[in-house]
Amino acid sequence: MEENLLHIEREGEVALVKLNRPTKRNAINDDLMDALETCFLRGLEGARAVILHGEGEHFCAGLDLFELMSKRSPDVLVGMRRSRQWHRAFDLIQFGELPVVSVLKGGVIGGGFELAAATHVRVCETSAFFQLPEGQRGIFLGGGGSVRIPRLVGSSRVIEMMLTGHSFDAQEALRIGVSHHLVAPGAGLDKARELAQSIVKNAPATNYAIINGIGRIAEMPMGEGLFAETMVTAMTRSAGVDSARRISEFFEGRRQRSDERAD
Fold first, then answer.
1. Among this protein's residues, is 219 annotated catalytic?
2. Is 9 labeled as catalytic in the residue annotation?
3. Is the pLDDT of residue 27 over 90?
4. Which residues neighbour 203 within 8 Å (Cβ) at sequence distance 6 or greater?
């Protein structure tokens, strides 16, 4: 096993998780996937938010094809197990307890795009480009990309990207909603820190409800969605006195600003 494939640091309540295979453009092999799964399963105790980024010039070039070829097996179950492991790890990211901010730069390719799509807030440096080259390589998306990425850009665009190898750049990523923030080269991590520090100020129960509830509720029929929203609202309000305190502080702040304007 390669060492330090995943580097984890703590800055207060924010955990910085770094893909650390720069000579491979942070391509994901089995060991790195094991490390990701372990990290998001039980390696972030005490954190309130996560920043996911990559060492070097690229975020992630996707599946390590050299390892894939060396481990190629005629047993279809081998490929299915690898795909299911990616699903488990990325589900831990998208539907875990902690909001995840990703910093995207250079190549966000194939499985790297799938990984980015599982994060909640995406900061894009202008160097970033997005590609799904699986069609040209005789394979298919296996890390949840056929589920997550069409929800970001539409199934028609994903089909075109996979058939032709077409890529799009950081400006288009912002325009079509893949990324939420566009920054200069090298500025992504600082922007992610700023966003993460804002996120950790929210009530933990509210953050959990947001990252686990919004996507699921949006896919429900209206009646079921409205009912689910009511239940989640009730649960977050009953999670403790924190919500009542925050609401009181909000109205107190409005009252003070109103008094200042009146003066």
1. no
2. no
3. yes
4. 236, 239, 240, 242, 243, 246
